[in-house]
Amino acid sequence: MRFDLEIKCKKIVGGRTKGKLLLSKKPINFLGMVNTQSGEITNTSNGFERQNLKGKILVFPNSIGSSVGAYTIYSLKSNNVAPNGIICTNNVDITTASGCAISNIPLAFIDNQRYNDLVNCIKILGKNKEIEITLDTEEGKIIID
Amino acid sequence: MHLTRDEEKGLSGEYGEATSAAYRILVAIGEATDAEKLVPIKWAHVSGVNYNTIGDSGLEFLREISKDGKVRVNTSLNPMGFDRENLPELSPEFIEKQFEIARAYEKIGVIPTFSCIPYEILPIPQEGTQVSFAESSAAVLANSHLNIITNKESALSALASALTGKSPYSDLRIDENRSPMVEIVNETDLENELDYGLLGYFTGKTIQKSCTGICNISENTDMWSLKSLAAGIGTSGSCGMFQPKKPSKFIEKVNYGKREMNETRDELNTSEDGQLITFGSPQLGIEEISKIQTLMDGKKFTKPCKIFCPKSVFCKAKQYGIIDSLQKSGVDFISDACTCLTPLINKKNYDSIITNSVKASYYMKTSNKVSVALKSLKSIIKGYTV
Fold it and tell me: Measured between alpha carbons, how far is A14 from A141 in angstroms, rounded to an integer?
């Protein structure tokens, strides 16, 4: 059965992209937790398995910690290991916004209710299944294929 | 976010590529933080200097910016990887690239302070002045103790503000957002700067709001402890301001007791002992270096000890004879750099270090892969001197 769901989002950095969804319930300190050569999240104490950001649509609350995290996002992009798109669910912090702006990574914000819609959708599709989503910030929508 | 005609021109590239890139950053932040407009700022403090952290892509970005970019306000600069006048045994490539980063910043007009404590080496503007501080510990301290106003900026947002003289009017820049909506109720005896750092780390990790109250901390807390508190908050979270206050009936509360303190210490303390003692993350000011000298009282460290401080602080301490005295005690001074993320301390040369800084502890473990024995200044001096 084909399953299509659209969730509205707020555009922060424009663009349309696709990728497998990578969901983190916890914030990320880009400087301390991410390897800019491989795109891997190296600090697994944050509830992550050894996930890789490359090509993903990262859904997470917001970034924390170092101001240099903005350069980490830029380095990920320069090294071709950046996420294709990012969606913040708590607030769009200045580090993520500025890093995505200069790296041309589409960035969106979804509020609590829409975040819950997304989580419910993941549950319906199956927890272990890789879910591909389209992030179209110009149109203000997330499409779950 | 509304832009004036002049700002629109800047965005469209009429004033050059660097200014256009700066406005693109500010517009994205404006969207992200629901800002209505940009406001002037008087001082920018930029991070993203250490080649160890920004790498080749950061260097390439700064090369491009420095082609036609010029700062429009006083702009100070965070630490780089090593001391300019005391070159370490790093690869010639690292040293050259680090100097190229420094030259790019100087070319756009940044003051080469190489310090994460700009508030201790440059004059503080009058109360209520809007500034743009990227260094997270400095941003938290500016809002909470120095009575100047900044959001918890990123390396790129502070650079964008330096190049335009502006920042989005949002979050902590607006008066009504500078009152805490939640407070940490401290139930512990804060005995030293490390205890304040642990409280800060817990606060940043727990509080998701921009401003938090902290109850039961002394109004006469010394600068080292305030810097530790601010650095802890800056390291673990997104909170950009604290207010020391008495508990209020009307605000949501989070308790910080012995258990929370121990859990925080257990997370950051990753070694029983270390091969090297380091002080300075944030860098030490003159008062803190003086305090170490007083406590040392002529004794010698039994392990190598590095103190990180700004060049100007080093020169001042030298005049007072403090440097000579501490060098006799076995201290090695490093200016222009900071314990946090320095390439001088990594897993190739050290398995573990001893420090009183929670910020150093976090980044040493996560980025440099070096374990940390976290101890207070007094405990370090008691345990490692003869």
Answer: 11
Those residues with Cβ within 8 angstroms of residue B136's Cβ, 6 or more apart along the chain or in another chain:
A65, A66, A67, B152, B231, B233, B234, B235
Subunit contact B154:A99, Cβ cutoff 8 A:
yes
Residues B294-316 pLDDT 10s: 999 999 999 999 999 999 999 99
- Domain boundary (B175, B195, B219) is at B175
Interface A–B counts its CB contacts (< 8 A) at 142
Collect the ranges in chain B with pLDDT lower than 50.
none
Structure tokens at A107: 């960035």
Specify whether the CB–CB gap between A89 and A61 falls below 8 A: yes
Q: Specify the CATH number for the domain of residue B309.
A: 3.30.499.10
A36: CATH: 3.50.30.10
- A66 in catalytic set: yes
pLDDT digits (tens, 9 = 90+) for A11-26: 999 999 999 999 988 8
Q: Do A98 and B25 touch (CB under 8 A)?
A: yes
Q: How many CB atoms lie within 10 A of CB B214?
A: 23
Co-location of B218 and B304 in the same domain = no
Closest CA–CA distance from residue B185 to any residue of chain A (Å) = 22
The count of other CB atoms within 10 Å of the CB of residue A118 is: 23
With a pLDDT cut of 90, the percent of chain B lying above it is 95
List A24, A38, A45, A66, catalytic entry: A66
In terms of Cβ atoms closer than 10 Å to its own Cβ (0-12, 13-18, 19+), residue B37 is middle
Which letter does DSSP use for residue B238 in this model?
S
From B22, which residue of chain A is nearest by alpha-carbon distance?
A102
Encoded amino acid at B257, one letter: G
Are residues B236 and B252 both part of a single domain? Answer: yes
Picking from B121, B152, B175, the residue at the C-terminal end of a domain is: B175
Structure tokens that stand for B87 in this block: 């070159």
Asked whether residue B130 falls in the same domain as residue B16, the answer is yes
ipTM: 0.91
Residues B219 and B336 in one domain: no
Minimal Cβ distance to A32: which of B50, B153, B363:
B363
Q: B323 and B253, same structural domain?
A: no
Structure tokens at B214: 């902290």
Domain span at B245: 179-266
